[in-house]
Amino acid sequence: MVRIVFDTNILVSGLLYPGKPRRLIDLAIHGRIEAVSSIEMIDELREVLSREKFGLDTGEQASMVDFVIRLSRITVLKSKFKAVKDPDDDMVINTAYDGKVAYIVSGDKDLLEFSSWTFHDVDTRSSANAEVP
Questions:
Q1: Which stretches within 30-106 are classed as H helix?
Q2: pLDDT at 60
Q3: Residue 25 in contact with residue 31, Cβ under 8 Å?
Q4: Host domain of residue 17
Q5: Is residue 132 assigned to a domain?
């Protein structure tokens, strides 16, 4: 099964709105792909969902975070790559590396440009271009 890391922006879009990010999450729900995350990424998701602009109450936030935890294989971060400008993006790269994933799905410009530096055959794709083999 193909292992994928969803960047936080993809998870938030897929949890809150219809579209391709939601369809990718549906693939994980139905066992067509395996979502991989880390405690650090879950913490970031928790923080992002608490932002006022989303208008979610604490119960909704907790339900979404719990859903992502149940959906994902949680990997322990051991690597400490500093490959891009934003430390939050490095967290995604480290999760992908330690989780031995095939793809990072993101809308983040720095992560999309990261695809030129590969390891474990990781490929970075935008949700607009993501196709699951």
A1: 39-49, 58-71, 87-98
A2: 98
A3: no
A4: 2-125
A5: no
Placement of tokens 């474990």 in the chain:
120
Q: Residue 14 contacts by C-beta under 8 Å, 6 or more apart in sequence? A: 6, 21, 22, 24, 25
Which CATH number does the domain housing residue 84 bear?
3.40.50.1010
Q: What is the pLDDT along the chain (133 residues), one digit of tens a residue?
A: 899 999 999 999 999 999 999 999 999 999 999 999 999 999 999 999 999 999 999 999 999 999 999 999 999 999 887 766 666 678 888 999 999 998 888 876 666 666 544 444 444 454 444 454 4
47 part of a folded domain? yes
Q: Is residue 121 part of a domain?
A: yes
Rg (CA), the chain: 14
Q: Which residues neighbour 89 within 8 Å (Cβ) at sequence distance 6 or greater?
A: 83, 108, 110, 111, 114
State how many domains the chain has: 1
Q: What is the pTM of this model?
A: 0.83
